[in-house]
């Protein structure tokens, strides 16, 4: 893909949520200070049904998005994810970290029974296996998008209703949270806390990346699909999540 001329931002430019994971590679840095307050959810729109062939008004692209609730030992957090087959979904490592109980629900409020979860040592990615079948899953793009390409992000900011945010791929940069990952994508599609783990789609509805952070300028950062594909093909790239235990 053509790369922009972006320079890496420092951690101070990020408004992101992330946690360190264990593995042979260096862990992610400590979370960005919680006193940084995210801006309002401008630019996010309710994901109203658009498929006339769907009885409930949701098309296949919207059905693949799931809400993730992480009931931890100390707090409850929410994120997003998306199915890649009938029993596998992708989300962020920081969405499932320090979990006592992971809860997954679909666009229509149906709870999905979770089996196992594993996180990547290199990127902010996690795989969740489910016992129940997931409603729908999209196609993964073969290659990363180019600067100027359309992007649509579908997820559950703040654990609320399903939303759609549209924009453009505006460049790439070195990952400001983990230099070992390499290049990540930058888009101007709006995201908010809870959007972490959302699928970013191209104009044909194919996944081109996974949302994992936002910048102080309200741009969104994506793990590119090339990285996702590379890690999914490596059986050693993920390790089982260590669940927390209450006191």
Structural description of this entry:
- There is one protein chain.
- This protein has three helices and 16 strands.
- The chain has a domain at 62-137: Beta Barrel (Thrombin, subunit H), CATH 2.40.10.10.
- With 247 residues, the chain is mainly beta.
- The protein has helices spanning 60-63, 93-96, 225-232; strands at residues 14-15, 45-46, 65-72, 76-85, 88-91, 99-105, 111-112, 114-120, 126-130, 150-155, 163-174, 183-187, 199-201, 207-215, 220-224, 238-240.
- The protein is globular and about 45 Å long.
- The strands form two sheets. The chain has an eight-stranded antiparallel beta sheet with strand order 7-6-3-4-5-9-8-16. A six-stranded antiparallel barrel has the order 10-11-12-15-14-13.
- A hairpin with a 2-residue loop joins β4 and β5.
- The longest helix has 8 residues, at 225-232.
- It comes from Myceligenerans indicum.
- Pfam families: Trypsin_2.
- InterPro entries: Peptidase_S1_PA (IPR009003), Peptidase_S1C (IPR001940).
- This is Trypsin-like peptidase domain-containing protein.
- Residues 31-53 are annotated as: Disordered.
